[in-house]
Amino acid sequence: MKIVNFSTRRPVSIVIIVSVILILGFFSFSRTSVDLLPEMNFPMAAVITSYSGAGPEEVESQITKVMEGSLNSLSGVTEIQSTSSDGSSVVLLMFDWGTNMDSAMLDIRENISFVESFLPEGAGKPMVVKMDPNMMPILQIGVSGGDLEQIQDIAEDIIEPRLSRIPEIASVYLTGGNVRQISVEVDPVKLENYNLSISQITSVLQAENFNMSGGQYEQGQRKYYVRNLQQFQSIKDIEDVRILSASGQAIRLGDIAVVKDDYEEITQYTRVNGEPAVGIHCMKQTGANTVAASKQVMAELEKIKQELNLDLKIDVVMDQAEYIQQSIHNTEKMILEGAILAILVIFLFLRNWRSTFIIFVSIPISIITTFILMYFTNSTVNLITMGGLALGVGRIVDDSIVVFENIYRHRQMGEPRMQAAQKGAAEVGGAVIAATLTIIAVFAPIAYVQGLTSILFKPLAITICCAILASLFVSLTIIPLLASRLLTDETMEKLAKLELGEGKKLGDRFGRWLNGLGDRYSRLLQVALQRRRRVIVGVTLLMLASLALVPVIGAEFMPAMDTGEISINIEMDKGSSIESTDEVSLEVEKRLGTIPEVDLVFASVGSSSVMLMGAGSHTDVSTMYVKLCPRKERDKDVNEICEEIRQILADIPGAKIEVGVMDNASMMSSGGGAISIQIRGDDLDVLRDLSAQITEVVRKVPGTREVVSSLTDGSPELQIHIDRDKAAAYGLTPIQVSSTINAAMQGTVATQYRVEGEEVDVRVKYSGEGVQDIDYLKNLTLSNALGMKVKLSQIAVFKVEQGPISIDRYDQVRIANINGDLFNRDLKSVMDDIKAGVNKIELPSGYEVEYAGQSQQMTDTFADLALALILAIILVYAVMAVQYESFFNPFVIMFSLPTALIGIILSLFITGRALSVPAFIGIIMLVGVAVSNAIVFVDYLKQQLEKGMERDQAIIETGRVRLRPILMTAFSTILAMLPLALGLGEGGEYQAPLATVVIGGLLVSTLITLILVPVVYSILDDIGRRRRDKKAKAKRAKSELSLELE
Q1: Is residue 216 a contact partner of residue 224, using CB atoms and an 8 Å limit?
Q2: Within 531-632, where are the H helices?
Q3: Which pLDDT tens digit goes with each residue over 243-272?
Q4: CATH code of the domain containing 986
Q5: Among residues 480, 503, 484, 502, which one has the least CA distance to residue 492?
Q6: Does residue 118 sit in the same domain as residue 172?
């Protein structure tokens, strides 16, 4: 081969080329971003529309349905989901994977512009948001210590602005603390006496608080600008505002209201380990380096702390960078451990450090070269790509082993170093190229897989392909070069003595055992070739027996990761006060303190989420983020601790408490949780009844936890139905009426007051305890443009009903969602039991049950991967057929694949792992890996037959010569993947099933292939010979007949 000859004759050129590659590799690695997972751009967008004062059903009919009907016509939309709740409509659009979301966002905005005119009066302007994983905070911090108001001021005035200026940070938002405001508490009795309304006060405050430019004038040589400064400068300025009554009397605001520097009504508490705190949540820019962004934030916080010289306590609640660094470090450790184990295996077979070094060189050079290719393919250093490198370590040395082993054999035959290097490498060059191309071929079909699997595992495929291409280059250049220089006559003499195994050292004993193994294998091959039918029957029975274990293995979408994070959601009775919710939250925090593995508890009372920006605020809910101590410091996994927390919180009265693992697989799933069931129909009462029945079925299935329905008892609500005709007769519009009601309930922000460089809301509200009962609202006074006073009861009807909390829809049909978590069971087994129970429930006409979430994603993804597996097998055969210019040899080699199935099933069964997406990727990868040994065997067998050797003798000779390199490549690959298969440390769960499948399949396939492939070759060769003989005999007979006729 030209490349081999060039590398051995031009050593300086090769050294320079490799040196440049290493320099570029280190440079590329330093410039590559570090993240937990590959960048994920979900093709999703949301349209959010506010409709203040409207209930869920009104929002659904007047906002949501209008939006859905219009947006459904957009190109590329695959699903439409919506939620209509109090005063808000959220329509979620799912597009085809690969959709240009920037273009889609423009289409959405253009579409909305046409339907805005059809929305009711009072509806807010629809807001379009692209659903981006970067909306999740990469860093959450709790600041506590000292006065909470002071901490709030520092957070708002100093910390938030300075962190926002960091280039990698997109936005920063705060939670907890007290929000300052100017309260204007109006006396309702005095308001009534002066015949005034609260809307009048709001309007006057808006009109009185302004600065305006008055133009300019010239006097002499000077130009003067005129400004009319009317902004409020003090509380007294607000108190001195005059309101004109209907009788023409100017009423001073301070005479009918109390104006004071105050705080907003507390609707949220934030605590870190029981101590009041202000939460700081940082989101990174799209494409930014998470680790670098986190480090800059922490450095800036430390700088602020030193500058202020205050005793502030800064607790890192959640830091993605910490887990990323731990996971990457753990994977790097696995790569190193795998490389060491692979090299030890090679040393055990070669028993010479010089020979081992020649092969070892391929590992660092191939890995560093891979970083260059990763850089130019825009890959990041993450858990998936580093896992690909760890998986590739064993395969990296395979080509080098095969090339070196053949060079070594030629040196044993007495050939000179240069000739042995060139001839030995060229002889197996075709085989290693074919083996490499088969690995690349098996990953090619992954390009056709869509969705999350494609996002996660295309980088894995790219990394492995880059690594083995680099290893192929090394095996055909560096290995022949080093072998031609290091396999000296002196070295060969030492190796010859080791081959005899005459000493008493461990290496000598292993040499004797290996020589004996070769002899025993040759005899075994002779017996197998004599009893071919028994071999075929035995292998077939083994495969059938292994298939019996398939139902026991189970299946899941993605393996759960132990991130050491737990979420707790507390839901009180609807309408509960913030004080009662906080009381329960404090009890939960107290009990969590008794669990030794709990490191930190971040509580957000009054918030529906501690993780998402813009989470809902409700006084009857509370959420907690529980951070466990590092994995190596605890004996229990996160699921066991989660179950323990469920048990110790089970007896807290007056609250529904859900405890769940913050699992990356669930967070990545775009279709819902582990268990997700949709009931579709029109009537909410029927949906609620069916939901209750199915929820009960799901709860009874073993292995289910935290099963909840979206259709629960709604909040008690006072519904005020405005008679539009009567309101119009009094000169009032529904929006005016709603504004007055809103002011009575929670006050109205009239304007802003600037104090100490800060814009503070001026909120006008009724004094006292506010709304006490229905009569209070019925007697609420409204004022029209003419100053006429109207009681609310004169233009509205009041009803008290149990309204729905929210109404969910899917593809423009109402649905009830039932969601749940898993515990100690695989997803497929649980879903099979659930479906069996649900099928017994009789559904009314027009109602149906659909299974969504991870179970649906698992089904769809497995179907895609099954197709990719079939394509991979076809491509591997095609590559070998082209390489050998033969249909026969590749067909024989493919018989090594079915035997891998035995190892796949046994490995999953023994380790207790379910079939998951990573395991399926491992099966696809195994198609390329498993045939490698058969390629090496058949390639050498073909060469011996071409030399004229008798077939069975050639098979036995091939077995004797190729046994050692086959065992070396197989066991080096297996042991290199062993650290990954153990799944230890942070992030190890993702790659463990993949490595487990490859190890099990390769181990069994290698052992059986050493017997099965020679047997199959001989059987098919006999069939071919009989056909050739039959054709030849027929041809001779035809020739004889034609001669007789002549």
Answers
A1: yes
A2: 532-547, 550-553, 578-592
A3: 887 777 888 988 888 888 887 777 788 899
A4: 1.20.1640.10
A5: 484
A6: no
